[in-house]
Amino acid sequence: MSDLPRQHVRLIPEGDERERLVCNQCGYVFYENPKIIVGAVCTWNDAEFLLCRRAIEPRRGFWTMPAGFMELSETTEQGAMREVWEEARAKVEIDTLLAIYNLPVISQVHMIFRARMLSPDFAPGPESEAVALFRWEDIPWSDLAYPNVAWSLRHHRALVGQTGFAPRGIPED
User: Fold this and answer.
1) Among 1.10.1200.120, 3.90.79.10, 2.60.120.10, 3.90.780.10, what is the CATH number of 35-158?
2) pTM of the full structure
């Protein structure tokens, strides 16, 4: 918010309960809302998981599933497929919503889908230094970039063979 002109102040607008950034000239309220992260646990032949080694900070060099910020004018499914293409140059078919992780401490909501790769073809995109398929026993658990990657992989594995289920949330452990 540092690029906003100085005529903005933080105050509680009339009829609101939260402090907001407000233009003190026209009264326009700048709402700051959580960011939506979309991504997918992608599998090939239901036996291998697609992971990307991050080429950018934060967590450069660590493995993650393809995921990132949702863009304007796209559905969550379109965003997840775009992220898979951008990071892993893989074509996928989105299956179902796997999990919704609410992370208020960083003002994010993560919507993670199950996806099937349409072919075994993949390559690093601009944000990835490497992309690979891993069998479950070979996943680099100690080198995963974020907790949500492990949560998503474990939730996916727990639901193998199931088609009707409610999306998961953050594990209690």
Assistant:
1) 3.90.79.10
2) 0.85
